[in-house]
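Table S2 (text version). Query chain:
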Amino acid sequence: MHEGPQNPDRRDAGHDPHDPREELVHLLRAVTVEFGLRQGEFAARNGMHPTDVRALICLLDAARAGEPATAGLLGTRLALNSAGTTAVIDRLERLGHVARVRDAADRRRVLLRVTPAAMDLGRSFFGPFIDALLTLTDTFDPAERATVHRFLTGARDAFGADGPRPPAP
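Corresponding structure-token output:
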């Protein structure tokens, strides 16, 4: 029978460190920490701020989803005010990683595009990690991939704008 945590000072009292569900949460956290470290390394190597890397990822995700990548979308996704969003875009444009282009459907709107050179730069750094993950994914059958997809989608949604919120301080 489980009698509670061994250390009474544990901040997460009531949580079972042997619960396999919690192990998944801790593994996901470890992956996000490692990914964040690689993002920071990429940013430092290329004269960027870590927020710049997150901005590039947001813009690439928007392009993949067929969403118009505007400054407003970027600011919302990064939780930046308009001045912060403009500063990120200006830095990325100066570095040649982002171009501002007029929307062909609405000439009043400016869209943001990640440049081919920036995509090549990202691929040269993150490519080996992506290749390793694709190789790992090849070892899963379709049902296993569907389960992983469901878990990661749920995890993303739990941390998203509509997910639970910590109590106010």
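Notes on Table S2: The first helix runs from residue 20 to 45. Residues 1-5 have pLDDT under 50 and may be disordered.
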